[in-house]
């Protein structure tokens, strides 16, 4: 088991991707804290049973501090932090209210900042063992290129990419590796909402037709699963990735490799 003896915390740990990461970490032998707004989350499966649930709003500084204090008291260190919590607003900037804009940045950017800030002392403790600690942020292929109608989301993910590189430079000398996962289309409740929504996804159209169109625009003719993301996260969290830091790992079925997104 690659993560035996490791302590991990996953924000958004009851969401589609977060839940898959928690379940994978548990199978690999880690002690896992699943942090989210509610224990139920968005899925009915319970492979992540055995994790320690923490009710946490990543944009609330006091709550984040209290969560890290709990980890310190119970475990004394934190080997792995995964910042998977995120929201998506399907609007152009003209249609986005200031409140929606600020909420997007509060969760996607400020949440990543706060959770990382207060995890760092615990991660330094973990690095004293001789193995590096691993901090994994969630960007997006939308931080490189853009889907229409996702302006605030694209902006937040570009910010997370830049923050990831900066953190890798600042904390690499302390034995803390920092990377970002940049997913493309992943089969999660957020994606299904995108298909059914009035924004750049479905515009109320036929979901099956839209799903096929999205699959067909990929060179691999499919979109990913939360388990695909968890596989990469698991490797970056492990000591096998000891030399991997400061990188933006795109996992999108070849979508962003194309000169243009063509329906062939």
Structure characterization notes:
InterPro entries: NAD(P)-bd_dom_sf, Sc_DH/Rdtase_CS, SDR_fam. Keywords: Oxidoreductase, Plasmid. This protein is α/β, with parallel strands linked by helices and 264 residues long. It has one domain (7-184, 225-250): Rossmann fold (3-Layer(aba) Sandwich), CATH 3.40.50. The chain has helices spanning 16-27, 61-75, 98-127, 151-171, 189-196, 207-217, 226-237, and strands at 7-11, 31-36, 52-55, 80-83, 133-138, 176-183, 248-251. Strand 4 (80-83), helix 3 (98-127) and strand 5 form a beta-alpha-beta unit.
Blueprint of the fold:
Layout: E1 7-11, H1 16-27, E2 31-36, E3 52-55, H2 61-75, E4 80-83, H3 98-127, E5 133-138, H4 151-171, E6 176-183, H5 189-196, H6 207-217, H7 226-237, E7 248-251
Parallel strand pairs: 1-2, 1-4, 2-3, 4-5, 5-6, 6-7
Enzyme class: oxidoreductase
Protein name: SDR family oxidoreductase
Family: Belongs to the short-chain dehydrogenases/reductases (SDR) family.
């Amino acid at each position: 088991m690659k993560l035996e003896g490791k302590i991990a915390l996953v924000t958004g740990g009851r969401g589609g991707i977060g839940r898959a990461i928690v379940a994978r970490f548990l199978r690999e032998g880690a002690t896992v804290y699943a942090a989210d707004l509610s224990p139920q989350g968005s899925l009915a499966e319970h492979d992540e049973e055995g994790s320690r649930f923490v009710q946490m709003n990543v944009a609330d500084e006091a709550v984040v501090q209290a969560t890290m204090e709990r980890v310190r008291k119970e475990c004394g260190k934190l080997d792995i932090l995964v910042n998977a919590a995120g929201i998506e607003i399907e609007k152009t900037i003209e249609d986005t209210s200031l409140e929606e804009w600020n909420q997007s940045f509060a969760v996607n950017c400020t949440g990543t900042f706060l959770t990382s800030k207060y995890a760092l002392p615990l991660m330094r403790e973990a690095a004293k063992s001789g193995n590096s600690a691993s901090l994994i942020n969630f960007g997006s292929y939308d931080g490189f290129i853009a889907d229409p109608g996702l302006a605030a989301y694209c902006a937040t993910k570009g910010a997370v990419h830049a923050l990831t590189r900066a953190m890798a430079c600042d904390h690499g000398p302390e034995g803390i590796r920092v990377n970002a996962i940049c997913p493309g289309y992943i089969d999660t409740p957020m994606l299904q909402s995108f298909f059914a929504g009035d924004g750049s996804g479905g515009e109320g159209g036929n979901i099956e037709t839209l799903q096929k169109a999205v699959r067909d625009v990929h060179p691999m003719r499919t979109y990913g699963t939360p388990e695909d993301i968890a596989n990469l996260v698991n490797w970056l969290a492990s000591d096998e990735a000891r030399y991997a830091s400061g990188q933006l790992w795109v996992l999108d079925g070849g979508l962003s490799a194309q000169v243009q997104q063509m329906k062939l």
